[in-house]
Amino acid sequence: MKRIAILLCTTFLVSSCGTSQNNTKQDKTKSSVNYAQTITANELKEALYIYASDEFEGRKTGEPGQKKAVNFIKKHYQSLGIPSPLGADDYFQDIPEDYFSRKAKASENVLAYIKGSEKPEEIIIISAHLDHIGVNGNGKINNGADDDGSGTVAILEIAEAFKNAADEGNGPKRTILFLHVTGEEIGLFGSRYYTDVDPVFPLENTVADLNIDMIGRVYKKHENNRNYVYLIGSDKLSSELHNISEEINKKYINMDFDYTYNDDNDPNRFYYRSDHYNFAKNNIPVIFYFNGTHADYHRPTDTPDKIEYDLLETRTRLIFHTAWELANRDERIKVDKQ
């Protein structure tokens, strides 16, 4: 987070082919619960220990470590068979160096998607920033495990869950865009490039953005109640989105939602400090999921061993359930606030 800035059956096989068809019919009765269970602490941990390792050199925008990060994300989607909306093997939305106002070298967002089965023109975006702040003046690597490795691996697991559903004939009615943006730490550049310069999908067709930025730790205020997450922005543009978020949580997770930072007068101004804001300013409803800051924020000590993976699993499942509901409800949510 920025400081204040996926033949033929022989006679012998007839019975087994029939069984396969029956299984497909049974699969169509599955709900989001079945697919949410594929999001596991172990897989989140395995991915994050790679993504927030020293090999990625703190993922500073435009630098070699960040290039390793985007290739890691791309290969993950390719391994799952989740395509890019950019076509073929082009998962990168290239952003030229001059766009970064001399703050970084050329960089790229990473895009993957699952096309909607009934309303493919309507888009649900799940976003997180892929960059961090690199190496400090003492040569120590800022690994950024929570900020925002936690959000990055959460999206990868959510994408896998949606892909499992699609493979069983339960794909989302609306298109899901998995959007990993660059340059957040230096000014929300990647998300701004997507919204202001090159929206791959029309903004007017974008139903909502669920943005994930730091969801793997516990803020000191909640040390005696780990079952929480801060929500920011859910009621700013759409009362319907806010109500859906609350209902889905009560139905599936029952986590405590803390809206402290959602206050318009919050001095931290977190609403303006992560990538959801570039969607909100375009009248697109958003939810920002956040665990609060901690002593390791923007320090070399933000390492994968500090992440509470069971809690990361729960929060990731919450976001998946919410995205599932937004993607599959009959009518798109309405904007009723300005």
Automatic annotation (TrEMBL):
PROSITE patterns noted in UniProt: EF_HAND_1, PROKAR_LIPOPROTEIN
Entry keyword set: Signal
One BP annotation, GO: proteolysis
UniProt xrefs under CDD domains: M28_like_PA
Superkingdom to which the source organism belongs: Bacteria
Pfam families from the UniProt entry: Peptidase_M28
InterPro entries recorded: EF_Hand_1_Ca_BS, M28_fam, Peptidase_M28
PANTHER family cross-referenced by the UniProt entry: METALLOPEPTIDASE M28 FAMILY MEMBER, PEPTIDASE M28 DOMAIN-CONTAINING PROTEIN
Protein name: M28 family peptidase
Organism of origin: Aestuariibaculum sediminum
Highest classification ranks of the organism: Bacteria, Pseudomonadati, Bacteroidota, Flavobacteriia, Flavobacteriales
